[in-house]
Design goal:
- The chain has one domain (36-242).
- Strands 1, 2, 3, 4, 5, 6, 7, 8, 9, 10, 11, 12, 13 and 14 form a 14-stranded antiparallel β-sheet that branches.
- Helices cover 10% and strands 47% of the residues.
- The protein is globular.
- It is mainly beta.
Length: 286
């Protein structure tokens, strides 16, 4: 049984940590400006991390509401080809999601295969809850994900929304290996607030979330990029895309900078990128 996840077809991390390949002339690229191709490559990594975050949140929510009666049609986030095994040991639930060796397709069109192992306490009345997950031979769109992620979940009022709502803080320490063997490492912290749809656990599609935070990514050539969300990124689950629909991200590599603007709320994969005073539109799904 799969129900609603509290982290939207986010990333939950979405151009948040900026990646970079070696430059085309093979000199390392450390002094080169941030290219559009690098931003697009990074968006692929963001989509991977966003989707696994959504899967982990979905499984927590599914277990939390397993005895509750929905007040509407239950919309499953995970595809029917996923096999879920649940074990309760002492006070800890462990849910293993197996997408098989052939893989499955998520609602946003991304493919996954292998296993995710998600664990959390069975005390759902606690004011603060911790969700942890790891991978076993797990691939997202052909990229191998390794490492771990912890999510601290609470409910409270914030400056963004006066009503009490879910707020999650994620610590990320992961390695992503592309099918060509290039390896990227990502570290950082994100705060995500679900500002709409959090009271309808059975329908993940009505979720709207906003994300703030900063972080860094180290790339195959040794470059380290930093990124900061300067205007909260907004994600609408109904778009079924792992990209923000609003918000601004500032990317820095050495002395170079790029500003990525995710738009005005339209459900698309287009962003505007400003570098050295020049602005152009790019498609993250290129």
């Amino acid at each position: 049984m799969k129900t609603k996840f509290l982290w939207i077809g986010t990333c939950i991390t979405l151009l948040f940590f900026v990646s970079c390949n070696s430059d085309e002339n093979g000199t390392g690229g450390s002094n080169a400006a941030i290219s559009n191709d690098e931003i697009i490559t990074n968006s692929k990594i963001d989509a991977s991390i966003e989707d696994v975050t959504a899967i982990a949140e979905d499984q927590f929510d599914a277990q939390q509401n397993s005895a509750n009666k929905p007040n509407g049609t239950v919309k499953n986030f995970l595809p029917s080809c996923a096999t879920i095994t649940t074990v309760l040991t002492n006070s800890t639930f462990t849910r293993t999601v197996d997408f098989g060796v052939e893989g499955c397709t998520l609602p946003n069109g991304n493919s996954v295969k292998g296993k995710m192992v998600i664990s959390f306490s069975n005390d759902f009345t606690a004011s603060t809850q911790s969700i942890n997950y790891t991978f076993e031979g797990f691939y997202h769109n052909g990229k191998k994900l390794q490492g771990s992620k912890s999510i601290i979940r609470t409910k409270k009022a914030t400056d963004l929304l006066a009503e009490v709502h879910p707020v999650t803080t994620a610590a990320i320490d992961m390695t992503i290996t592309f099918d060509d063997g290039s390896v990227y490492s990502r570290k950082g912290s994100l705060v995500k607030e679900v500002i709409e749809g959090y009271d309808t656990w059975h329908d993940w599609e009505d979720n709207v979330s906003v994300v703030t935070g900063s972080g860094s990514t180290t790339f195959p050539n040794g470059d380290t990029f930093s990124a900061e969300i300067t205007t909260p990124l907004q994600f609408n689950a109904s778009c079924k895309k792992p990209f923000a629909v609003k918000g601004i991200l500032s990317i820095t590599k050495n002395d170079t900078n790029a500003i990525v603007d995710f738009g005005n709320g339209d459900c698309n994969t287009l962003v505007t990128v400003t570098k050295d005073g020049t602005t152009e539109e790019i498609d993250l799904k290129k």
